[in-house]
Amino acid sequence: MEDLPRYLAIARQLESRLDSGELAPGSRLPSVRQLATEHGVNTLTALAAYRYLEERQRVVARPRAGFFAALPGAVPSGQAERPMPSVATLVDVESRMSNLIRLSAAPIRQQLHMAEAHDSLYPAQELARRMQQVLTRQPELIGAHLPMARQALLHRQISQLAAGWQLDIPHDRILFTGGITEAISLSLRLLTRPGDTVAVETPVYFGLLQTLQMLGLKALEVPCTPDAGLSLEALEFALRHGAPVKCLVTVTNFQNPTGALMPEDNKKRLLQLARRHGLPIIEDDVFGELHFSGSHPPPLKAWDRDGDVIYCSSFTKSFAPAFRLGWLSGGRHHAELARLRESSSLVSPALLLGVLSDVLGSGDYTRISQRIRQQLARQCDQLADAVLAAFPRGTRLRRPLGGLLLWVEGPDGLDSHRLLQAALAHSISFAPGLLFSAEPRFGHCLRLNFGQPWSSTLAEDVATLGALARAQLQGQ
């Protein structure tokens, strides 16, 4: 028998359990201390085993969370080694979208289908008191416009906040919008005309597909993976050999639905690629503030020196969803975007902007958003652990490092649309994978939001989803 160093023997045993599926992709592995106790070695030997597997890309280390089983890196047989973009197609997702949105108003007990956090995560009572105070001090804010001096102050506060994200946003290059959806819609209206082609990630947020449909635009879907985000190779192939692409819409930080965080080197390469091809970029950074560790990952805009990136952000996820306060910085397109904004919604609610300015000025925004991030990180792990324990063997997921969403890849043969119909009978909802492409893709996938506080009821509902998935695969 081969005489292996102790750490390597432990690593080989773990690798065998990973290969057999006993340790599911995305599952939490024993802590270093637990592994050491299990094999009767010291913690340095156990850590060396994990580091060996990490170098082989079989496990992933998460700061302050431990080690997790990595998703398989091998390409399934019969598939191309390099992901390729699809043919650009006109978007038609209205009926699928309408059905999903109707679920939000339906009396469904466990709603996991939208990218929303539970209202208990937000300081509703605190914001209500602050709103009353602002209105008492400045009753004129009930009017349509924020006074210029207060507006200038808010712009400086936003610029200072963005500086912490490695963004250099001039005070006069900030434009408030009705949430991030309006920011992206304005940008698309400026850069495109009906019939034009827009490059997007796939799987892609279905709300963006709906916006493209409303504007009569074609979607060129470029593959996106949970570990690296948008495939730059596939995008370059499309730009070199496909029909003209007017712009790219991308979520580089915690992409919807995969949760992917694009590596910084890839962000720099993407910007260089776009410059070579004269491709404007609309960057959606709605989830950037929901990072679980460290600081807000630098957006693509951080390396934009020529104003090619229209940067879109929002406070809907990290502060107050009902305020619907988004903003953009348009680079070289900013003046045109400001004029286009004037022709649509004109101004954002002055009272809400006044409250936001107060919260930013007091430092309370930092405290509020940090508490939300910490809670979401716990809920992400709790939901991921429950899914892997309940769902059929072969289920895969990659735990995101931020955001609100968990992308679950079921085993081959799982039909998530049929699974949703079965789940609704138990008053449970989720977003099936077919929603995340203009083409019939991702039918075996589903998206869950981990914005709901963890509870025994939620644990039971995840177990029910898993049982329904197993029953479907068994033909029951």
Count of DSSP-assigned helices: 15
Strands, total number: 17
Strand fraction: 5-15%
Rounded to the nearest angstrom, the radius of gyration is 23 Å
What is the helix fraction of residues, given as a range?
40-55%
* Unreliable segments of 5+ consecutive residues: 74-81
Report on this model:
It is built from 15 helices and 17 strands. It is α/β, with parallel strands linked by helices and 476 residues long. The two termini are 46 Å apart. The longest helix has 27 residues, at 364-390. The chain has helices spanning 6-20, 32-39, 43-55, 94-105, 124-137, 148-163, 179-191, 206-214, 232-241, 264-277, 334-342, 350-362, 364-390, 416-424, 456-473, and strands spanning 59-62, 66-69, 89-90, 110-111, 175-178, 197-202, 218-225, 229-230, 247-250, 281-284, 309-314, 325-329, 396-397, 405-409, 428-429, 431-432, 445-449.
Short recap of the structure:
With about 475 residues, the protein is α/β, with parallel strands linked by helices. The chain contains 15 helices and 17 strands. Helix content is about 40%, strand content about 15%.
